[in-house]
Design brief:
This protein is mostly helical and 169 residues long. It is built from nine helices and two strands.
């Protein structure tokens, strides 16, 4: 399933870059708060990544990177979630997600379930290797694959649905 769409690559000199990043960071602040109302909602639903995926795929690497870096830091400062010890891994995975999503959008020029699956698997697999190197615990590093499958599915199908809904903007 593919949908043609208007996909952008906004520059840092464009005020829209910061406006969209602000909106997506706000989404990445609100969504985790809702998900944390459910027991194990954060690790299971992986909400901090959702709007980073949308931001980078629709508006390019710069908006995605701003969203990826600011979301975990602001969430930590406001709510102490994620924990400080988890920030490096979250920042790496978020940055990888922004890069993979922007690359896939630029390469395919379409909203595609296959491309989104590739993005999600790429940032998770590469991010898991980094997490394993940082924490030294393989079992902890593969946590997203052990309990985060629902979150990855939400990113895949929910991300596709939202990108499709905003495809003509």
């Amino acid at each position: 399933m593919e949908t043609s769409a208007k996909l952008y690559s906004l520059s840092f000199s464009n005020v829209k870059t910061y406006l969209f990043a602000f909106l997506f960071v706000a989404g990445n602040i609100a969504l985790p708060q809702l998900c944390h109302l459910v027991p194990m909602g954060g690790p299971t639903l992986l909400p901090i990544y959702f709007f980073t995926l949308i931001a980078a795929y629709k508006f390019g690497f710069r908006v995605g990177l701003l969203t990826a870096l600011l979301s975990p830091v602001i969430n930590h400062l406001l709510f102490a979630m994620p924990a400080a010890a988890a920030l490096p891994v979250l920042l790496i995975k978020s940055g990888l997600l922004a890069g993979a999503a922007a690359f896939a959008a630029r390469y395919t020029k379409k909203i595609s379930l296959v491309a989104l699956l590739g993005v999600i698997l790429a940032y998770q697999v590469i991010g898991t290797v980094f997490e394993w190197a940082i924490c030294g615990n393989f079992f902890l590093a593969v946590q997203d694959f052990r309990i985060g499958i629902p979150g990855m599915l939400i990113q895949w199908f929910g991300g596709y649905a939202l990108l499709k809904a905003i495809s003509k903007l």
